[in-house]
């Protein structure tokens, strides 16, 4: 084993030396201690990336061996660095690479490296000089991390990644970041003018930049991040630039800047909470509630009475205004759910809602027990229409109340 790993370590050391020189370029003569610090940065980032994301990457890529993580600094100043690190995907997988933002500070014990999605990342980015991590980025990372600690709402507040009011093809229904892997966090889209647009506001970052392509990630203030892969003709916005819903990111393509495979030009859209892939099941994006099934790529999207399967066209209705908590009606084997005049089955039926309908929750109350999809519950939700629905038939991402108690 040592005969195989020694050259790998030698290459890593050589790469870190080159990277260190790049970090100091343009900074003028640097003291020997700064040279030594920069030389060890790449190794420290790689080690942290493999420690925190290595197991996930092996599971997603269905492999025991991983390519060496790339380290791409965006900004640096003396003993601070900020950038991206990426584990390339194998060419055998229909996957996007595993990537993360990093921030690093060099101290007496060496480099301290923190990755996006952790408490330490927020703490360290807040301490970093503004020339390394801007004030706007610091604020965004804090908002994203705080929001990600809450249970995800069914309505993501995001649109689909193309022009609002236009229909594109869903070439591949919900699937894993590498096809068969769980969770089913990704969907493939193509159509229209091919222009891929940001699904929501935030800041944009490119990782594994090669041959005019890259993995593009937008970090959103609402706790989500979205990933976009296979694109060409990328935006010329710099890393960390602010974007709005609908900002141009690139064109659909078959590009593989960091591994994977692709058939037919498309964008591989991934949904992340903080920096972890999450299932799109029951999540509302662009006005559609996406549903997963056992087999990858075979899921579908629903909106009211309309269901669109793989190969169908979806109109992008854009992001919701995200005014308060929402839920998605889920009657299980029943196609619709009754609405009541009060919080129990003893109250009269005042209407019905079809499965997949997105509703907004005004407040909650404890009432009559119902045997729902997730067990027995006495939690009821009063909708903004004034009608009541049992929490047993409303997917909100949690079994706990997501809105204040009624009357408080």
From TrEMBL:
It is an enzyme of class 3 (hydrolase). Binds 1 zinc ion per subunit. Residues 324-398 form the SH3b domain. Keywords: Hydrolase, Metal-binding, Metalloprotease, Protease, Signal, Zinc. It comes from the Bacteria. Zn(2+) binds at residues 175, 188, 268. Its EC number is 3.4.24.-. Residues 1-32 form the signal peptide. Coiled coil: none annotated. One of its GO terms (molecular function) is metal ion binding. The keyword tRNA processing does not apply. GO terms for biological process: proteolysis. This is LasA protease. The lineage of its organism: Bacteria, Bacillati, Actinomycetota, Actinomycetes, Streptosporangiales.
């Amino acid at each position: 084993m040592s005969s195989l790993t020694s050259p790998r370590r030698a290459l890593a050391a050589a790469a870190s030396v080159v990277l260190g020189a790049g970090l100091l370029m343009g900074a003028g003569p640097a003291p020997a201690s700064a040279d030594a610090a920069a030389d060890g940065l790449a190794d420290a980032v790689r080690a942290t990336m493999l420690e925190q994301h290595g197991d996930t990457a092996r599971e997603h890529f269905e492999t025991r061996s991983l390519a060496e993580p790339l380290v791409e600094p965006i900004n640096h100043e003396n003993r601070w660095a900020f950038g991206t690190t990426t584990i390339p995907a194998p060419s055998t997988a229909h996957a996007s690479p595993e990537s993360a933002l990093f921030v690093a500070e060099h101290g007496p014990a060496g480099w301290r490296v923190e990755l996006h999605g952790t408490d330490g990342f927020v703490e360290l980015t807040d301490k970093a000089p503004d020339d390394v991590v801007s004030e706007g980025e610091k604020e965004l990372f804090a908002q994203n991390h705080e929001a990600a600690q809450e249970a995800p709402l069914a309505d993501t507040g995001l649109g689909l990644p193309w022009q609002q009011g236009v229909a594109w093809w869903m070439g591949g229904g919900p699937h894993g970041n590498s096809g068969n892997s769980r969770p089913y966090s990704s969907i493939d889209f193509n159509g229209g003018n091919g222009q891929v647009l940001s699904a929501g506001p935030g800041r944009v970052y490119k990782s594994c930049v090669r041959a005019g392509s890259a993995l593009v990630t937008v970090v959103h203030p609402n706790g989500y991040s979205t990933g976009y892969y296979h694109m060409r003709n990328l935006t010329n916005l710099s890393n960390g630039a602010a974007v709005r819903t609908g900002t141009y990111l690139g064109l659909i393509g078959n590009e593989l800047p960091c591994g994977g495979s692709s058939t037919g030009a498309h964008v591989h859209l991934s949904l992340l909470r903080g920096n972890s892939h999450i299932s799109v099941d029951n999540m509302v994006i662009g006005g559609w509630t996406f549903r997963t099934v056992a087999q990858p790529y075979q899921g579908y999207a629903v909106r009211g009475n309309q269901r669109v399967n793989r190969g169908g066209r979806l109109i992008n209705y854009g992001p919701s205004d995200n005014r308060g908590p929402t839920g998605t009606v889920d009657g299980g084997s029943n196609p619709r759910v009754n609405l009541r005049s009060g919080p129990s089955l003893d109250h009269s039926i005042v209407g019905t809602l079809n499965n997949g309908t997105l509703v907004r929750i005004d407040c909650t109350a404890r009432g009559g027990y119902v045997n729902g999809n997730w067990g027995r519950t006495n939690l009821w939700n009063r909708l903004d229409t004034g009608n009541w629905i049992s929490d047993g038939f409303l997917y909100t991402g949690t079994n706990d109340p997501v809105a204040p108690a009624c009357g408080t």
